[in-house]
């Protein structure tokens, strides 16, 4: 907990209206203060570098860099930073990835007015927060997959494949993706072929639909 008991928050969501609503919920509490706002994951990382923050509240589906990708960077950049994922997607794949990325909580936007403050308190105590009903469903899903010999969801795609998938779904060309990720066009094409093979899909349209369902991009 910060010395003056004020929790300084970084809030990242690509919708200004959502940020305004979340900010109102947070700043209704005397010890919570939003000190920085960001419209995408890359901006969130820049804000974390230029502001002193104790807690980051990150939307999962954002342009350029998702909240999950930003969480990985932030966890490496500031190991003591608490991270909460804010999402409209009740999706076990991204719940597992959120924990692996360093997040300590997963809050659904639909019930943020009910759960967000409790999640912030849990995060600052170093305790995990799950929305009600998540634990049973997630454990059941995980055990079912293990019994059937399936890979757990967070092992389906590598971090790099997820990055390529997001950019393909956003309509970027192989050349643009190569420049964004600082890799060769040939490497991008190889990742794209691996994505199609692993996910059993045929083309960019199907990859885009998958990315929407998975919460990497919004429709």
Automatic annotation (TrEMBL):
Keywords: DNA-binding, Phosphoprotein, Transcription, Transcription regulation. Pfam families: GerE (PF00196), Response_reg (PF00072). InterPro entries: CheY-like_superfamily (IPR011006), NreC/VraR/RcsB-like_REC (IPR058245), Sig_transdc_resp-reg_C-effctor (IPR016032), Sig_transdc_resp-reg_receiver (IPR001789), Tscrpt_reg_LuxR_C (IPR000792), WalR-like (IPR039420). Residues 150-215 form the HTH luxR-type domain. Residues 8-124 form the Response regulatory domain. Gene3D superfamilies: 3.40.50.2300. The modification 4-aspartylphosphate is found at residue 59. Signal peptide: none annotated. SUPFAM superfamilies: C-terminal effector domain of the bipartite response regulators (SSF46894), CheY-like (SSF52172). PANTHER family: TRANSCRIPTIONAL REGULATORY PROTEIN NARL-RELATED, TWO-COMPONENT RESPONSE REGULATOR. This is Response regulator transcription factor. It comes from Streptomyces xantholiticus.
């Amino acid at each position: 907990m910060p010395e003056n008991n004020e929790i300084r928050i970084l809030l990242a969501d690509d919708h200004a209206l959502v940020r305004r609503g979340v900010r109102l919920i947070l700043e209704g509490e005397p010890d919570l203060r939003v000190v920085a706002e960001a419209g995408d994951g890359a901006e969130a990382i820049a804000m974390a570098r230029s502001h002193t923050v104790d807690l980051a509240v990150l939307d999962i589906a954002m342009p350029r860099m998702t909240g999950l990708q930003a969480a990985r960077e932030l966890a490496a950049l500031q190991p003591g930073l608490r991270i909460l994922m804010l999402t409209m997607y009740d999706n076990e794949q991204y719940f597992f990835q959120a924990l692996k990325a360093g997040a300590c909580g997963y809050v659904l936007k639909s019930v943020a007015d009910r759960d967000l403050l409790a999640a912030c308190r849990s995060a600052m105590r170093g305790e995990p927060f799950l929305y009600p009903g998540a634990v049973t469903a997630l454990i059941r899903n995980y055990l079912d997959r293990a019994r059937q010999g399936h890979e757990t969801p967070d092992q389906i795609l590598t971090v790099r494949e997820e990055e390529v998938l997001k950019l393909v779904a956003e309509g970027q060309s192989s050349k643009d993706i190569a420049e964004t990720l600082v890799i060769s066009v040939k490497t991008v094409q190889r990742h794209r072929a691996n994505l199609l093979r692993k996910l059993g899909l045929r083309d960019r349209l199907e990859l885009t639909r998958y990315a929407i369902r998975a919460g990497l991009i919004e429709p």
